[in-house]
Design a protein that fits this description.
The complex is a heterodimer of chains A (813) and B (126).
Chain A (H helix, E strand, L loop, with lengths): L1 H19 L7 H7 L8 H5 L18 E4 L7 E6 L4 E4 L3 H27 L4 H4 L4 H9 L2 H14 L1 H18 L9 H6 L8 H16 L4 H10 L2 H7 L53 E5 L10 E5 L1 E3 L1 E2 L4 E7 L2 E7 L8 E4 L2 E7 L5 E5 L9 E4 L2 E4 L1 E9 L2 E10 L5 E3 L13 E5 L7 H8 L5 H8 L7 E7 L4 E6 L14 E2 L18 E3 L5 E4 L20 H11 L6 H8 L5 H11 L8 H12 L9 H19 L12 H8 L15 H21 L5 H5 L4 E2 L27 E3 L2 E6 L3 E6 L17 H5 L4 E2 L14 E8 L1
Parallel strand pairs in A: 1-29, 3-8, 7-24, 12-21
Antiparallel strand pairs in A: 2-3, 2-29, 4-5, 4-23, 5-26, 6-25, 8-9, 9-10, 10-11, 11-19, 12-18, 13-14, 15-16, 17-18, 19-20, 20-22, 26-27, 27-28
Helix pairs in contact in A: 4-8, 4-10, 7-10, 13-14, 17-20, 19-21
Chain B lengths: L1 H19 L4 H12 L4 H24 L5 H9 L5 H38 L5
Helix pairs in contact in B: 1-2, 1-3, 2-3, 2-5, 3-5, 4-5
Classes of the chains: A alpha+beta (813), B mainly alpha (126).
Chain lengths: 813, 126
């Protein structure tokens, strides 16, 4: 009897252990909260006090001092951490400095690097299962791996960037090799996988991930549809190539050198057939623009030194996209933010120059409609000749399922991203090939390498001219007092409207032609106005000799130009204030018109809000209720206006700034946009809609603007317990401090380039990627409230006797 | 006395085992020690339960207290629990339960053989 009981209990216990040692598939409601794959991880393994998640509970007073033995180092090196855990790497040679950057990235951010490079290359399904398949397929069809392979060839062909990548990869792998299960980042334990060795292609993929984030979106397909759906007058009015009054990146009136290339003549064939009949546009227009940068010459500053500022806006996630550090080797002393997964510093300063970037939205991605040879799948017509596609097999491993194999055809233009099996947004089930600058064999890492060593303007320019894709507005300031800005990227000499719409892919005549020589990219050095600024706006006025189009926005640029042109004796504090500026130029321009059209009778509550709005200062500050009322009212009004134009799908509404301009002319010439004749009706209706939403907001925790808009920083797994929401921060996309729902200033930097470099910065995250570390999100409160940290910029020497240094890693061979 | 010694042996051996081996070796240790120590009935269960319970609770506190509960609070929320103390208790209980059951199973299996031998001789009636 006892034996039976004993065996029974033994089996029961073994069963219990088995259950706790394996992921559970059947509890999706809880599972989704824990792991993106929807499974509950192996609970026993996860909660094991010795090796499970508890091993990631980093003591708050952890002593980070370490002696590292790293046999492949060329000489000894040190990493000095300050009290914010920013490493200052001092190495005797380039190999060691990049090796240690890789090592320290992996030490603090391994899971993030791993996950992001998987995402870039369409390998998410390997770890989260079939849920990731659509995403992976899309990445592969876009040619992400193809692009990274092409760039890797260029990066490995240059000895400088080859050294950089090889050393970085070695460093990451030196760290991975030391890991036991207990040491793995928490997310690996939750998701049930383990790191694999790092490779150079992963770094290349990380850089392409940025290129895709910044140049991946294009309106070509949407504009093709709209051009056909709207009358030519309406189309021109609603979607102008350049918004009137644009204050371009390169100040108006700047003299451009004459073009060395002649603008090509447009071929006759356009695509006239009605391509898109379906207005079911599912691809959202990414609402992700918000980056600003500017440099103010010493003439306009209190100290007499130039000041450079940058706040690139990107998706807000944890672990943060950026990792802050200083790199020192012979000939290089640079500080700034790096991209975990890639060597070098992307935004920052050296001991001589500083630089910052905003995205340059010139269109570098075009689509071609192909004509397949009837009855075949592997040939298309090109200038009357049947031409074979090149095929690329994309094998996607799916956790718990057989591999998914997608064979992607490549035409002479590029990968056939969309076809019958993978329809384009708008429902176009025809083969569309994509031609994208990011597919080319470009070496942005060389630009990083040279910028990180720049001594002066010429050496800086020599560096950035290697930066091809994603194109960036690169702002510059140096200790000699110079300022400059470049609309830098690799562009094609296009005829007017080339690539603005889907092009005919059956002829070579529509293909991209000559590349514009880099030195002819728009730029300005020490302009008379005493400052330069960019905020994703149009790059030049119409005198620039080459034709381009792009997805530009103007509101922030207007505000910045307004502020900077009136600024004298500027201090770093003025710059902090400007980066955190929440003045809405949109509101100041449209609200007076909207207030003229309030409903005739208002109840007490409506009167209260209307009275407040009339006195409002147009600041979208965090605790303002008027900001909430305006934003909601505008939101409904904007949507009501454009949804009335029923041929335009929601995702393709004209820009807010264009809408603003049209609203301002409601009384005059608006025959082409009939909805605006109903402006009075729409304004009244949308006011009531806004009041309803305000009532809901008041019931659900408050009408303060920050609560209504809910700026959140979400962990990459979307686990709420590792994320932050309802951050107390003002602003929106129409203000300089463009803190939106899940998108905002990813790194705010202010550098005064005086005799001593005085630099400040903050980013929404923390140096550690470990949710169990006190360094995981410790910068968020400062970031939200607009505070800055003074950056510790150490001289390039070995001494680590500095009272600001808290911990030291000494690395020996 | 033997009861307390058993607790200590299980706790120490499972701590050593878990450091090098998968977490579920605590079950093997508890079972084996219970057999070896000829534990009986509920006492065996209690010994295994307390040994692993104390070990796990102690080990979790050892990580959690210096961490100011940063991780435990987050992990509690991951499991939909608002109080990290509940999570620590659940974790310790899970370990304790496995320890108790394994020790009990060990005791029953060991005793069943012993009992058989003795009853053959007819000396002791179980």
């Amino acid at each position: 009897m006892r034996r039976v009981a004993g065996i029974f209990i033994l089996i029961f216990t073994a069963g219990l252990v088995w259950v706790l040692d394996n992921p559970l598939a059947k509890l999706p409601s809880l599972g989704a909260k824990i792991d993106p794959s929807g499974k509950i991880p192996a609970i026993g393994k996860l909660l094991d006090p010795v090796n499970g998640c508890w091993a990631n509970a980093e003591p708050v007073n952890k002593d980070f001092n370490e002696q590292l033995i790293l046999p492949t180092l060329k000489s000894s090196a040190t990493l000095s951490f300050d009290d914010r855990l920013i490493p200052h790497i001092h190495a005797g040679n380039d190999h060691d400095v990049y090796f240690l950057e890789g090592y320290v990235h992996a030490y603090f951010r391994l899971w993030q690097m791993d996950m992001e490079s998987r995402a870039a290359g369409g390998r998410v399904s390997e770890v989260i299962g079939a849920k990731g398949l659509d995403f992976d397929r899309r990445q592969r069809r876009k040619g992400m791996v193809y692009a990274a392979e092409n760039s890797l060839k260029a990066m490995e062909a240059d000895p400088r960037t080859k050294l950089m990548m090889d050393a970085y990869t070695e460093g990451v792998n030196a760290y991975i090799a030391k890991l036991k299960y207990a040491d793995l980042p928490l997310e690996y334990k939750l998701m049930g996988f383990a790191p694999e060795p790092w490779t150079n292609i992963k770094s290349a993929l990380m850089l392409k991930y940025m290129a895709d984030d910044l140049t991946g979106h294009t309106d070509d397909i949407a504009l093709t549809y709209l051009k056909e759906a709207l009358s030519p007058d309406q189309f021109r009015m609603l979607y102008p190539a350049t918004i009137s009054g644009s204050m371009p990146v390169i100040p108006e009136g700047t003299l451009f050198d004459s073009a060395s290339l002649k603008r090509p003549a447009a071929p006759l064939d356009t695509i006239s057939a009605k391509l898109l009949t379906n207005k079911d546009f599912t691809e959202s227009r990414p609402d992700g623009k918000g980056s600003n940068n500017w440099a103010v010459s010493g003439r306009k500053t209190m100290s007499g030194a130039a000041i450079l500022c940058n706040d690139p806006h990107l998706g807000l996630n944890l672990p943060s996209l950026w990792y802050e550090l200083q790199l020192q080797s012979p000939g290089m002393n640079t500080y700034g933010v790096s991209l975990p997964g890639a060597p070098g510093i992307i935004i920052g300063f050296t001991d001589s120059v500083s630089w910052g970037v905003t995205n340059n939205y010139r269109d570098v991605k075009d689509f071609y409609l192909l004509k397949r040879v009837e009855g075949t799948t592997d040939k298309y017509w090109l200038d009357g000749q049947p031409t074979a596609f090149t095929k690329r097999e994309e094998r996607i491993h799916v956790k718990g399922q057989p591999d998914f194999v997608d064979v992607v055809s490549y035409s002479i233009q590029g990968p056939v991203m969309y076809d019958e099996s993978y329809p384009a947004p708008g429902g176009l089930k025809k083969p569309l090939a994509m031609c994208w600058m990011a597919h080319r064999s470009t070496n942005e890492l060389l630009a990083i390498y040279l910028m990180n060593r720049a001594k002066d303007y010429p050496s800086f320019v020599d560096g950035i001219l290697n930066f091809q894709c994603p194109a960036q507005n690169m702002v510059y300031a140096d200790r000699a007092g110079n300022i400059a800005i470049w609309g830098q990227g690799q562009f094609v000499n296009k005829w007017k409207d080339q690539g603005r719409y889907i092009m005919d892919g059956a002829t070579k005549a529509t293909m991209w032609g000559d590349l514009i020589p880099m030195r002819e990219n728009p730029h300005v050095f020490n302009p008379a106005q005493g400052y330069v600024t960019s905020a994703n706006q149009c790059v030049t006025d119409s005198t620039y000799p080459y034709w381009y189009n792009g997805d530009f926005v103007e509101l922030r640029a207007w505000r910045l130009n307004d502020m900077l042109s009136n600024m004298n004796k500027a201090t770093v504090q003025d710059m902090f204030a400007l980066q955190n500026d929440t003045y809405s130029l949109l509101a100041s321009n449209v609200l007076p018109y909207m207030l003229k059209h309030l409903p005739a009778t208002l109840d007490e509550r409506e009167q209260k809000y209307a009275a407040k709005l009339k006195k409002w200062n147009y600041q979208l500050s965090a605790t303002s209720a008027s900001a909430s009322v305006f934003q909601l009212w505008w939101f409904f009004l904007y949507n009501d206006i454009w949804s009335g134009l029923n041929k335009v799908p929601e995702r393709l509404f004209p820009l807010p700034e264009r809408t603003m301009q049209l609203v301002q002319t409601t009384d005059s010439e608006l025959a082409v946009v009939p909805q605006l004749k109903n402006f009075d009706y729409l304004a009244k209706r949308s006011f009531r809609q806004a009041m309803d939403s305000m009532a809901t907001a008041e019931k659900n925790g408050g009408a303060d603007w920050y609560k209504v808009k809910n700026t959140s920083i979400t962990h990459l797994t979307k686990i709420p317990a590792f994320s932050y929401d309802k951050l107390k921060i003002g602003g929106w996309g129409n203000t300089v401090n463009a803190a939106k729902g899940d998108h905002g200033p990813s790194w705010r930097m202010v550098v005064q380039m005086g005799k001593e470099i005085e630099a400040y910065g903050v980013y929404p995250g923390g140096q550690s990627g470990n949710p169990g570390s006190k360094y995981y999100a410790d910068f968020i409160p400062s970031w939200a409230s607009g505070k800055y940290y003074k950056l510790l910029f150490l001289p390039n020497e070995t001494s680590t006797r500095n009272s600001d240094i808290k911990y030291t890693w000494t690395a020996h061979q | 006395m033997r009861f307390f010694v058993t607790i200590i042996i299980i706790a120490v051996l499972s701590a050593i085992a878990e450091y090098f081996l998968p977490w579920w070796t605590i079950a093997i240790v508890a079972c084996g020690v219970s057999m070896f120590m000829r534990m009986k009935g509920w006492a065996s269960f209690l010994a295994g339960f307390l040994a692993i319970g104390f070990f796990w609770f102690g080990a979790v506190l050892f990580r959690d207290i210096p961490n100011n509960h940063i991780l435990s609070q987050r992990m509690a929320l991951v499991f939909g629990i608002n109080d990290y103390g509940v999570l620590l208790s659940v974790v310790s209980f899970l370990g304790a339960l496995i320890g108790g059951l394994s020790a009990w199973a060990g005791a029953l299996l060991m005793n069943s053989r012993a009992v058989k031998v003795i009853t053959k001789k007819g000396a002791i009636k179980s």
